[in-house]
Design goal:
By secondary structure, the chain is an alpha+beta fold. The chain contains 7 helices and 5 strands, in the order H-H-H-H-E-E-E-H-E-H-E-H.
């Protein structure tokens, strides 16, 4: 397995897609139910293969990720070859970007000395999807890039 197994909830949401996947493997509902009983390890392998296919599709189309922690916000933008990053850091220890008030504080203090802003860029090391998946595993959340573009526009970068 290259990525991570989908959760039970994710599999339930993708029920129709999973049924189509099983059909492409020439496994109907009765065979699937029997497979889970007789050969649970094979059923697990099928779930793993499906999970990797779903992740591949999600990661291939990923363009933005946001990662929030108490004192930092990491904003990532991806294309096929590069990762561009904006990192916002609060030097005020009372600010918590995980709370609504922390984000309001950021909006009011973006240009102040209490907010450090760094920009970065690098090329993917070879496995674009793997690198994006690592960011997600560390707590990154796929986004539409609104915050990335807002910050970039405010800073004219």
């Amino acid at each position: 397995m290259k990525y991570a197994r989908l959760t039970k909830e994710q599999l339930e949401e993708l029920h129709a897609e999973f049924a189509n996947f099983l059909a492409s493997q020439q496994i109907d509902k009765n065979e699937w139910d029997q497979l889970k009983i007789d050969k649970p390890e094979v059923a697990e392998q099928e779930i793993d293969i499906f999970s990797d296919l779903v992740w591949e599709g999600v990661l291939k189309s990923a363009q933005y990720i946001e990662h929030f922690s108490k004192g930092h916000i990491f904003l990532f933008q991806f294309d096929e070859k590069n990762i561009d990053t904006i990192v916002l850091k609060s030097t005020n220890p009372s600010v918590d970007f995980l709370q609504k008030e922390g984000l309001q504080w950021l909006g009011e203090n973006l240009g102040s000395d209490e907010v450090e802003i760094r920009f970065g860029a690098k090329e993917f090391g070879g496995d674009r999807n793997g690198e994006i998946f690592e960011i997600i595993q560390q707590g990154g959340i796929l986004s539409q890039g609104e915050l990335y573009h807002q910050i970039k526009q405010i800073l004219n970068k």
